[in-house]
């Protein structure tokens, strides 16, 4: 006798998308949204941006690198790139079918900072979008997506799956955050971070965040594994394991990725020449800088600079073909 089958539950389903776009906005660029009846996610891969709303009850939201924002339908908003900085933005508009409307409402008009899991899903989503659709770029009102004639098998289904996985991850993150808030409220005197046990302070995720914060503060220096082990009282193998699990890179390899990410931003903002950029980031020679840049990006700094300049459109340009979009190594710093 065959066992009775079980119908799997689906909390929500995404069957239609309205937009998938990957843009670089020049500093001070302002975009005023048109009306739309679908959900929209905005992810800042690089730079900084501010979102303001026509609904005065909603406060402006500042999005930094690695932040993701979920915009609800029927909401007018304005997007503004930070002064003096280029904002690299990925957006996806979608329709969501659910028997529980409150599910997505819990995420609407909230800011999340992407962890490795969400960053990977966004990368996969952007690449599938590029492989399956040919968007007509318009800086004011992006045109409808057009299917490519040579779509890979299952591409559109993967786009739906990646979006659903991303929303589930964010919902769990939100639920966990709310539960933690409730627990804190139930305590008479919440513990301060300094009073946490040494074991808790040395969990892998906390150590990773502390070390990457250290990287940011010392981005122009030459860092060695031995120095990190001493600074954070951690063994070499443990250090490497943390970074492999969190990023897929070794500890120093990840630091090099961070430095080159900063270098790419400097080149895009066009405030210094290549020699000055190398010096500002602590490279001892333009030769060593160029060698490491090419190793990580697959092109020399001058080639990258040329491609950025040739692809620019005023006041906005698409950069989806210049480099692998939404690289997980570009998320946190």
UniProtKB/TrEMBL annotation:
Any single Pfam family the record assigns to this protein = HTH_18
Gene3D superfamilies tied to this protein:
Homeodomain-like
InterPro entries the UniProt entry points to: Homeodomain-like_sf, HTH-like, HTH_AraC, HTH_AraC-typ_CS, Tscrpt_reg_AraC-type_HTH
PANTHER family reported for this sequence: ARAC-FAMILY TRANSCRIPTIONAL REGULATOR, HTH-TYPE TRANSCRIPTIONAL REGULATOR EXSA
The superkingdom of the source organism is Bacteria
Under which name does UniProt file this protein? Helix-turn-helix transcriptional regulator
Q: Does the keyword Transcription regulation apply?
A: yes
Coiled coil (residue ranges): none
Annotated GO molecular function terms are: DNA-binding transcription factor activity; sequence-specific DNA binding
Signal peptide residues are: none
Keyword Transcription listed? The answer is yes
């Amino acid at each position: 006798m065959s066992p009775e089958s079980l119908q799997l539950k689906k909390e929500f389903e995404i069957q239609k998308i309205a937009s998938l776009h990957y843009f670089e906005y020049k500093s001070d660029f302002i975009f005023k949204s048109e009306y739309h009846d679908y959900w929209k996610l905005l992810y800042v891969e690089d730079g900084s941006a501010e979102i303001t709303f026509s609904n005065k009850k909603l406060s402006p939201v500042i999005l930094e690198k690695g932040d993701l924002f979920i915009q609800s339908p029927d909401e007018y908003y304005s997007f503004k790139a930070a002064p003096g900085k280029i904002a690299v933005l990925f957006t996806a508009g979608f329709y969501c079918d659910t028997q529980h409307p409150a599910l997505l409402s819990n995420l609407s008009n909230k800011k999340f900072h992407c962890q490795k899991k969400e960053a990977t899903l966004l990368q996969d989503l952007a690449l599938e979008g590029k492989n399956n659709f040919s968007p007509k770029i318009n800086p004011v009102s992006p045109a409808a997506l057009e299917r490519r004639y040579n779509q890979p098998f299952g591409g559109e289904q993967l786009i739906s799956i990646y979006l659903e996985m991303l929303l589930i991850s964010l919902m769990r993150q939100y639920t966990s955050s709310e539960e933690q808030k409730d627990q804190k409220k139930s305590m008479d005197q919440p513990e301060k971070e300094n009073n946490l046990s040494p074991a808790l302070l040395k969990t892998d995720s906390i150590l990773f965040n502390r070390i990457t914060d250290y990287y940011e503060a010392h981005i122009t220096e030459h860092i060695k594994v031995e120095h990190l082990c001493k600074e954070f009282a951690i063994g070499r193998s443990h250090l490497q394991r943390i970074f492999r699990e969190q990023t897929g890179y070794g500890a120093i390899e990840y630091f090099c990725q961070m430095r080159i990410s900063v270098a790419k931003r400097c080149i895009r903002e066009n405030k210094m020449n290549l020699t000055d950029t190398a010096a500002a980031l602590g490279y001892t020679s333009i030769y060593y800088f160029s060698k490491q840049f090419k190793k990580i990006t697959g092109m020399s700094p001058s080639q990258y600079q040329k491609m950025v300049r040739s692809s620019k459109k005023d006041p906005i340009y698409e950069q989806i073909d210049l480099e692998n979009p939404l690289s997980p190594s570009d998320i946190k710093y």
